[in-house]
């Protein structure tokens, strides 16, 4: 037993020594700014969409209302001897006395989106947290950021990987992005007075993203986390939230907490072009070096459509499932897990066969997963990924549709509108009690459901 303890102790020393040694080789990039917004420079890029799809460009959020400021910096350094120079967009409390010490970091999506901001837009400011977007992917920098404002960004560049490297998937180009994200983490945790947070103490970093950047986050966990170390051997990134993407290998964050969040529609979307595609699945865990949760949300589509009233097909109705509050609560769980050690709830898995066929109830709604009254007290059959006909683009499967029940079926199921609302509201109360949505969101959806027309 004493020999075993000694071997374990020696192993941990060797690991710490290796991690510290690796940290000594991680340079801190140079930073300049803030870059002003002037008539000749123009405005900074701030994302094309909060969802994992291209969009027309986001308006400037009302940061002043919540006591926040936005600043853009230019960072520069080298990757394997090749120089880079790119954009670092920062949102933080104007009064740094309010700063929590936690920063959410995301690489800008290859399609220009900033989904980690979108997931946390109701989390970052209320919590006093910071948020940073890095143009670390060459595809995003060249095709989105620089085209948004050629004059402002003419001097920015990221080295090109060997010919044929794909900026959307795992590739040499992805490895360059990972290295930049590691250097950015070192910069943020260096707490330099000349840095983006003015010397305020950055204690925790979370990395996250959705869809394409959910994939980059998963690959960073697998390929870079173990070597991404501070000089004291501790991790640069303390937690990860990869969303709406899958890994072919077991997801293990080591000494970082991981919440992997996906919706029912993500399975159908990623299988749309390859019905036999299988995804790595694993159990939830609470071990000190294996803190992991996988949340699978029944009825959630890849791209939320609640509030829309039409699709690209006549007579079809978009899914009204509210995806945002579930992902927002997942982020709140990750923050509490990393900063306070508060253990988040475990989530049941969607019920599917070994070859990936989702199991459904008598109404056609999926079984299993994280439940809600939208599937347990249904007024519609929710199809989390719109069906694709020959000639349709696979992107159609990013959105959900629903088949509303007739008044006769609703009356047969619930009797009266009042009885339906009582059951629906009880379902929302259970969601809040189980910590799947916030109390405020529970009250909001009660109000929205009550405002709908009677049967």
UniProtKB/TrEMBL annotation:
The keyword Methyltransferase does not apply. Residues 26-60 are annotated as: Disordered. InterPro entries: Abhydrolase_dom. Keywords: Hydrolase, Signal. Residues 32-445 form the Alpha/beta hydrolase domain. Residues 1-22 form the signal peptide. GO terms for molecular function: hydrolase activity. It comes from the Bacteria. This is Alpha/beta hydrolase domain-containing protein. It comes from Novosphingobium aquae.
């Amino acid at each position: 037993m004493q020999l075993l303890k000694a071997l374990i102790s020696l192993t941990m020393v060797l690991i710490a020594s290796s991690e510290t040694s690796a940290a000594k080789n991680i340079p801190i990039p140079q930073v300049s700014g803030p870059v002003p917004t002037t008539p000749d420079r123009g405005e900074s890029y701030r994302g094309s969409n909060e969802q994992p799809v291209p969009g027309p460009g986001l308006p400037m959020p009302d940061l002043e209302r919540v006591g926040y400021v936005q600043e853009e910096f230019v960072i520069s350094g080298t990757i394997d001897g090749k120089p880079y120079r790119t954009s670092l967009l920062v949102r933080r409390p104007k009064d740094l006395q309010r700063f929590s010490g936690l920063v959410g970091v995301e690489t800008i999506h290859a399609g220009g989106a900033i989904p980690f901001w979108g997931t946390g837009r109701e989390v970052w400011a209320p919590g006093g947290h910071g948020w940073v977007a890095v143009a670390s992917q060459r595809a995003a920098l060249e095709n989105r950021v620089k085209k948004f404002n050629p004059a402002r960004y003419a001097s920015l560049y990221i080295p090109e990987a060997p010919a044929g490297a794909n900026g959307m998937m795992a590739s040499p180009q992805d490895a360059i992005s990972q290295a930049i994200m590691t250097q950015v983490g070192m910069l943020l945790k260096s707490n330099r007075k000349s840095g983006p947070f003015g010397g305020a103490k950055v204690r925790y970093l979370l990395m996250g993203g959705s869809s394409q950047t959910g994939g980059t986050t998963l690959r960073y966990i697998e390929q870079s986390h173990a070597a991404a170390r501070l000089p004291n051997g501790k991790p640069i990134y303390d937690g990860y939230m990869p969303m709406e993407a899958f890994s072919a290998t077991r997801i293990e964050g080591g000494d970082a907490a991981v919440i992997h969040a996906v919706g029912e529609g993500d399975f159908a979307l990623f299988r749309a072009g390859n019905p036999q595609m299988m995804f790595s699945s694993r159990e939830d865990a609470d071990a000190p070096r294996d803190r992991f949760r996988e949340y699978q949300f029944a009825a959630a589509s890849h791209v939320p459509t609640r509030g829309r009233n039409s699709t690209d097909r006549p007579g079809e109705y978009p899914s009204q499932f509210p995806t945002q509050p579930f992902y927002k609560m997942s982020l709140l769980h990750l923050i509490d897990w990393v900063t306070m050690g508060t253990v988040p709830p475990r989530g049941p898995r969607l019920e599917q066969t070994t070859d990936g066929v989702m199991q459904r109830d008598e109404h056609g709604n999926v079984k299993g997963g994280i439940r809600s009254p939208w599937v347990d007290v249904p007024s519609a059959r929710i199809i989390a990924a719109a069906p694709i006909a020959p000639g349709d683009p696979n992107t159609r499967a990013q959105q959900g549709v629903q088949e509303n029940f007739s008044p006769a079926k609703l009356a047969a199921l619930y009797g009266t509108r009042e009885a339906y609302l009582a059951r629906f509201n009880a379902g929302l109360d259970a969601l809040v009690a189980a910590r799947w949505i916030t109390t405020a969101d529970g009250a909001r959806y009660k109000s929205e459901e009550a405002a709908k027309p009677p049967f």
